[in-house]
Amino acid sequence: LLSHFSSIGFWGLVNNAGISTFGETGWLPMETYEKFADVNILGSIRTTLEFLPLLRKYQGRIVFMSSIIAYFTLGNGIYSMTKAAIEKFCDALRLEMKKFGVQVSIIQPGNYARSTKIQPPLSAEEIWSELSEEEKAVYNKEYVQERANFFNSILSEGSTNGNEVVDAMVDALTSPAPKARYMVAKLKEKALVFVCALFPTAVMDSVLSYALSK
Fold first, then answer.
1. What is the pLDDT of residues 116-159, one digit of tens each?
2. pLDDT beyond 60 at 101
3. Does domain 12-213 have CATH number 3.40.50.720?
4. In the 8-state DSSP scheme, what is residue 161?
5. Packing angle between helix 43-58 and helix 77-97, nearest 10 degrees?
6. Do 46 and 1 meet the contact criterion of CB atoms below 8 Å apart?
7. What residue ranges do the domains of the chain occupy?
8. Which member of 71, 79, 112, 182 is catalytic?
9. Residue 79 falls in the annotated catalytic set
């Protein structure tokens, strides 16, 4: 791509960096929230601000890696939180950049855990050993084991066709008319997003509570 676009200067920026972890809200220390915000949110913002002058000059493209998990969460609320924040940052940036001819796109992959290895499986013992004494007094090891099994089963179902996400990124960088959002996900995952976007919150809560209970 660099050789292809070298004649028109700095063309594209892809904000792809991201980290993920599993855990209910009270299980994670504040330091973890700060680290995730720094990498997943502020990291993309820092990079964008650094290259914005060049992107405006050459009317380039900016691509952000989000996730369908920006719409709902199933045990990894900290990751969901950061992706929802990036979505809103992109919405503002996309509108502001139109007058400069800069295109902003968001990639929203479904579960590609087996392709990206962004989230390694977690054992109940690992989770339990990191819990504060207050959290250990509220939860028990059996519950933690159930949650770990649930989350690890989701990871094991992840698609191995990571090229689908890469293809969306390439299209966002090279298409004459790139999309604002590329949702690269299975039908079941898209259905969850549809329910989350169009149905009352109580309906989505019921759907997710059922999924978590299985």
1. 777 777 888 888 988 999 999 999 898 999 888 888 888 888 78
2. yes
3. yes
4. -
5. 20
6. no
7. 12-213
8. 79
9. yes
